[in-house]
Automatic annotation (TrEMBL):
Domain of life: Eukaryota
Signal peptide: 1-20
Main localization, broad class: membrane
EC number: 3.2.1.58
Pfam short name (any one): Cellulase
Any GO molecular function: glucan exo-1,3-beta-glucosidase activity
Protein name: glucan 1,3-beta-glucosidase
Family, similarity comment: Belongs to the glycosyl hydrolase 5 (cellulase A) family.
Phylogenetic placement of the source organism: Eukaryota, Sar, Stramenopiles, Oomycota, Saprolegniomycetes
Length: 386
C-alpha cells in the first residue's frame, strides 16, 4: 500500500502544471539558496556509480574506469549508441525529478560533456554517442518546470580533459591537456555560449557551471594553467553577459585551491550572479579515521572554511556521505549514519549560494551506495531534509 501511495504521489507531482513563479527566480535573485542534488552518470558516465548500466556490458574494468572516451574507443559507435540511448532513457526520468522536488529540494546540477553541443563537422565530436541534448532539453523545458526544480548545467567534461579523470572523459587517464591547446579552450567557450543562449528564456534554467574540478599544479607547471583558467572564466562571463543573460555563472578554482585563503580567488570576478564552487568531501584525506572523527572534526572544518570565505556567494557543488574504509562499520549503524548526515548537512548549509549532493543515484551494489546515493539515503531515512 505504501509503495502504491508513493508511486501515485510521484505521478501526481509529475503531472502538476508549473507554479505561478518558478523557484529558479528566487534562487537567482538570492532570496533562497539552492538546495539540490547532482544527476551524476546520466549524460556523462562514470562506471563506479552505474555498474548495472547496459553501457558497461562486456567492457573490461580497466577500460570502463577511464570513462566515456576510452569506452567508446573499445565498443565503437555501432555497439555503443543503442546502449547509451537505453541508459539515458532509464537512469534519470521525470519520476526522479518529481521525487527530488517532493523531497524538499529546489535544484539539480546536471553534468554534461562538451559533446552535448552538436558539431558533426568535428571528428572528435563524432567519437561520442549523440543525442544527449534531447535529454537536457527534456529536463529543462519539461520535467523541471512541472516539478518546480531549477537546473544548473555543469560543463563536467571539457575537450582535452581538465583533470585527466574518468568524469571528464579523458582520452588518456591522468593527463589534463585542456589548457595546453588553445583550441580546447575556444571550443569550451563555444559550448558555454551555446548552452547559455539555448536556455536563456527557459524558466527552470538557473545557470551554468563553467568548468568542473580543474586540476593543476602551478609549482610544477602541470595540468591546468591557472592564468588560462581565469582568462577563460573572464571571457565566458563577458560573452554571456553581453547577450543580456543574467543567469548564474559558477566558477571553480583549481581543485587544490578550495580554501578561504587561496590567492586571488576571493576577489576574482566580483559581479552579480557569479558563484564560487567548492567540492567538500570527507572520503579523502581522512584515511584511518573513524566516522566519529569525521562527525566531530571533519564537518567542523568544512563549516569553518565556509564561514571564513569572503568572495562571491559560495556554492558547495558536490558533497556526499562517502567515507574512508576506516569508517564503514560505523556508517552501517543507522544512528551514527544519521548523525553524520545531519552534521554534514548543517555544515554545507552555511554556504550562501547553497549546495548539491553527489549524487542522486549511485548503484554501487552496497547499502545506500556507501553514502553516495541520495535517493537511497532519503528513502532509508538516513538523510532528512524536512
Amino acid at each position: 500500500m505504501l509503495c502504491l501511495l508513493f508511486t501515485a504521489t510521484l505521478f501526481i507531482a509529475t503531472m502538476m502544471p508549473a507554479t505561478a513563479e518558478h523557484v529558479q527566480a528566487a534562487i537567482r535573485s538570492g532570496a533562497v539558496p539552492a538546495h539540490g542534488v547532482n544527476l551524476g552518470s546520466w549524460l556523462v558516465m562514470e562506471s563506479w556509480m552505474s555498474k548495472q548500466s547496459p553501457v558497461w556490458a562486456g567492457v573490461p574494468d580497466a577500460i570502463a574506469v577511464g570513462g566515456e572516451h576510452q569506452t567508446m574507443a573499445f565498443l565503437g559507435r555501432e555497439k555503443a549508441d543503442p546502449r547509451f540511448k537505453l541508459h539515458r532513457d532509464t537512469f534519470i526520468t521525470a519520476a526522479d525529478i518529481a521525487e527530488i522536488g517532493a523531497s524538499g529540494m529546489n535544484m539539480v546540477r546536471v553534468p554534461v560533456g562538451w559533446w552535448i553541443m552538436p558539431d558533426s563537422t568535428n571528428d572528435a565530436w563524432k567519437h561520442y554517442s549523440p543525442g544527449g541534448l534531447a535529454y537536457l532539453d527534456m529536463l529543462i523545458k519539461d520535467w523541471a518546470v512541472r516539478s518546480n526544480v531549477a537546473v544548473l548545467v555543469d560543463i563536467h567534461a571539457a575537450p582535452g580533459s581538465q583533470n585527466g579523470r574518468d568524469h571528464s572523459s579523458a582520452p588518456t587517464s591522468n593527463v589534463a591537456n585542456w589548457s595546453r591547446d588553445e583550441g580546447n579552450i575556444a571550443r569550451t567557450l563555444k559550448v558555454a555560449e551555446f548552452l547559455a543562449a539555448r536556455y536563456s528564456q527557459d524558466e527552470a534554467f538557473l545557470g551554468l557551471s563553467l568548468l568542473n574540478e580543474p586540476e593543476g599544479n602551478p609549482a610544477t607547471n602541470s595540468g591546468v594553467d591557472i592564468a588560462k583558467l581565469q582568462a577563460y572564466y573572464t571571457t565566458a562571463v563577458s560573452r554571456i553577459r553581453q547577450t543580456g543573460n543574467d543567469c548564474v555563472l559558477v566558477v571553480a578554482p583549481l581543485l587544490t585551491e578550495q580554501s578561504p585563503t587561496a590567492a586571488g580567488w576571493p576577489t576574482f570576478l566580483r559581479q552579480k550572479n557569479i558563484w564560487h564552487d567548492w567540492h567538500k568531501y570527507l572520503k579523502w584525506g581522512h584515511e584511518g579515521q573513524p566516522l566519529s572523527e569525521l562527525i566531530a572534526r571533519g564537518t567542523d572544518t568544512i563549516a569553518r572554511d565556509i564561514s571564513q570565505w569572503t568572495g562571491n556567494p559560495l556554492f558547495i557543488g558536490e558533497w556526499s556521505l562517502g567515507h574512508p574504509d576506516s569508517a564503514k562499520a560505523e556508517f552501517q549503524d543507522q544512528n551514527q549514519g544519521k548523525l553524520y548526515a545531519s552534521t554534514y548537512l548543517a555544515a554545507v548549509s552555511k554556504a550562501k549560494g547553497g549546495w548539491a549532493f553527489w549524487s542522486w543515484r549511485a548503484d554501487t551494489g552496497l547499502p545506500f551506495g556507501e553514502g553516495w546515493s541520495m535517493r537511497e539515503l532519503l528513502r532509508g531515512g538516513i538523510l532528512k531534509l524536512k
